[in-house]
Amino acid sequence: MACCDCLRKILNFCFKYSLVFGVIAIAIIFAPSANYLLDIEPRPLTVFLPNSLRQFESKKVEWKSFENAASIVGPDSIAYDPKANRLVTGSDDGYLYSIDVDDDGNFKKLFQLVNDELMARFQYKRRPRPSGLRFDSKGRLFVCEPMFGVFKVENVFTDKPKIELVFDIEKTSKLGPTSEKPSGGHIIYVSDVSSKFSFQYVTAAILSSDSNGRVLRYDTETGKLDILMSNLFFPNGLEMLPDNRGFLLTETGNRTVWKYTFDDREARVLMTALPAEPDNIRLSLDGKTFWMALLRPRTRNDPLLIDHLMSFPMLRKLLVRLFDMIGTLFELLHRLTTISKLQCLSRQFRTMEILNKGKDEFATGGMLIEFDSNGQIIRTVYQTEGIENNLAWATEVREMQSKNLNERLLYIGSFRPGYPIRKITLDKK
């Protein structure tokens, strides 16, 4: 009898508090918010994982060698200047670094693009983080700073580089009609992850399945800004076609690759239902094919936690709002106590960066795909498991000329701190 009473009390307790938590959860999800960023309506993901990796296994090759190169923190994108014979990458600390191609373990800190005046404009709430890097034919370096815009740098390897902000991210609302062909000036193409969320809220953008992403074309002489593609879920890597008559784009959120042609002003799906989230695309050394970096490959039979979450829109909405509420609470406590750690926690919760401190499911896999402009897969390099995974968090592949003519040399970048520039060699077949 005593046992029954005890069980009844436990059940009553569980029911009572589950009811309370349920009411709180409903209130968090449906209550109006003063923060427009939280005014979200997530949707289920409609692009599913493949049933198997069979089509990728048939093209899989093994590397001949693997090693770490320059120990730079978070080298997301890698550009090459053939005149100087040096690589340049951006780091998580906000600086650019140069790397000696003949001694790729040797690197030099260069400079930051974002000066104190620009930081002050945003009340020091945004931090520099160089991402996409490209050299043009004149040796000028173009660098994407996700929270500020696009910079042009001349005289990169000198003591007095000329740095210019040529595309201000705050001016993207001043749009003109889309023209068929660019004319005049230096044309740049930019993938805008979201017109709603700034880059520091990238996790919230993903969990809310935000489809406000765009591809923009900007003329640095006339200031003309065109929208070429819109309604995208996390547009990311962008690479011009070999004939410059269009470009390829990765839509990371939908695990899809698009092909856009200027003549038609149309985009078509080139590859979809990929086994992992695609990141940057870069032309291969011969200029005819492309290398694409992806996160951990998987199938419908072995999904990750994020794959399960994408099937439950209301749960994702609850998480985004709950983390923002916790961050707001820490901010209020910081104002009352001036404890700097509380302000740090506030930022980590509101941007959901705190999730990065948990178990990293993407640390046990990675994938590289070489394909042509028709979406035909040429070869793949990937791992799906392992404690120390060599391809984990690969975000870009830069192919360089190998000293051995029978080999192909690939440098691998990573946005994630903890992963240096990696180098692998493949048999040339």
What would a concise description of this structure say?
This protein is an alpha+beta fold and 429 residues long.
General description of the model:
- The protein is an alpha+beta fold.
- It has a single domain (54-305, 358-427), classed as Neuraminidase (6 Propeller).
- It is built from 7 helices and 23 strands.
- It has helices spanning 2-30, 54-57, 116-121, 202-207, 305-309, 313-337, 340-350, and strands at 65-68, 78-81, 86-90, 95-100, 103-112, 133-135, 141-145, 149-154, 162-168, 187-192, 213-219, 225-232, 235-240, 246-251, 256-261, 266-271, 278-283, 290-294, 366-371, 377-383, 396-400, 407-413, 422-427.
- The chain has a 4-stranded antiparallel β-sheet, with no helix packed on it. Strands 2-3-4-5 form a 4-stranded antiparallel β-sheet, with no helix packed on it.
- The model is unreliable at 13-23 and 174-184 (pLDDT under 50).
